[in-house]
Amino acid sequence: MPGRLLRFGAALALTLLAATACSNDEEPEPAAPDSTPMGHTYISTEVTGTAIPGGGPLTLVFADGRITADAGCNKHSGAVDLHDHVLHVSELASTLAGCPGERAGSDTWVGELLRGEPTWELDGNRLTLTGKNSTVALTDKKVVQPDRPIRGTEWIVTTLLTPQAQVSSRTIEEVRPNLTIAEDGGLTGFAGCNRLTGRAEVTETPAGADIAFTAATTRMMCTPEVMEVEQAVLAALDGTAQATVDADTLTLHNTNGHGLTLRAR
Prior knowledge:
By secondary structure, the chain is α+β, with helices and mostly antiparallel strands. It is built from five helices and 18 strands. The chain folds into two domains: 40-144, Lipocalin (Beta Barrel); 153-264, Lipocalin (Beta Barrel), CATH 2.40.128.270.
């Protein structure tokens, strides 16, 4: 009997050694891919070297293989390649707004930074770009500016979204259409000429929220330009709109093709 136990123990040890050897011969699991800035928005919190003319900050949006940059004047966008921790940016398209004072120089600063193929490093919520003349530390926008709640925030209209275009104008800036959704779903605000009241039932969704609006206004008449803004605002609040919040910006897309971009007060 002792001999049999000895032979069994030796066989078991050989089996374990063989299993261990097979295990060691297995291919190692591939390493998880490095995190990248794609899908996030970052705001500069520190710049060393050449400062941003006008003070910035620099905002970088990484989405769908593209980058959009804004340092206080125009927006610049183009395709971006993040391989080898270098920012390879294609030809940039830019808006053409004129900016006063030192801010006008921010466009040149952005172009030199991005076209200079800066290196990038991501550490949690902190993104660092190292260029030829500047090193920029940026923080995820959701950390710097957490999403504002849809309810209980006064939202100011900044842009009209129509089936044909996005419309910003001096009239919108002057009349400042706005709305507030109370915790109980009550809707109050100003459509541009008339006061706004009604209901706004908010239903949370994976992509943001659906808001079912029922709105009524007073019956004053204003100039044609103001009435045109008001009609566009009311079209966006006619029925159900999909809502998304990014920091202090609320975007509404109505199923009828109209919508609004609003900024939290």
